[in-house]
Amino acid sequence: MSVRTSSSVRLRPFVRSALAGAAGLAWLLSVATPVGGSPPVAGIPSAGRPDQVGCPWVAPVDAPVTDGFRAPPNPYGPGNRGLEYGVTAGQAVVAVAPGRVGFVGPVAGRRYVVVEHPGDLRSTYGPLESTAVARGQSVAAGEGIGTAAPGLLLTARIGTGEATRYIDPAPLLAGRCGRARLVADRPRRADGSR
Predict the structure, then answer these.
(1) pTM for the whole thing?
(2) Which residues contact 61 (CB under 8 A, 6 or more apart)?
(3) Which class is 10-174 in CATH?
């Protein structure tokens, strides 16, 4: 025999809505397909590495990051797949880098925009109060794409199909996009030894 409390009955529609929203967002972030192969954009080399996709990125909003990137332990595990910003509703949102809009529309009743960048990289923005772009439209870094709704999240993904993975957008925003290089702690002697 199960006992229901009035609070559990009131939570059910909320839980159902939250689960539908999470499932819809997961679908959007994993299967949004490129528009026409996204040709290279001037100034950004086409390659599959985040250090070759136009760095540094510009911040999508003028607001502090309230929740940083936390990679999930597996594709369906908990974590934060992007950067969440403490925005004011209606605040302008801009593209972080040049690209082509691959998706504009609602996911579980909330508006999202996906911009495809060269090198199989995608940036996703949402939820948005309004959008100012259309699917297939080219955008420049810093160009307005819409207005923010509370809880704005920026995600970055690299790869296509099954090989798509989330990456932390913070290094791209901070301009730390080059390859890591080990540096010796002792200088070389004249003969080349350490």
Answers:
(1) 0.66
(2) 85, 87, 91, 92, 93, 94, 148, 152
(3) mainly beta
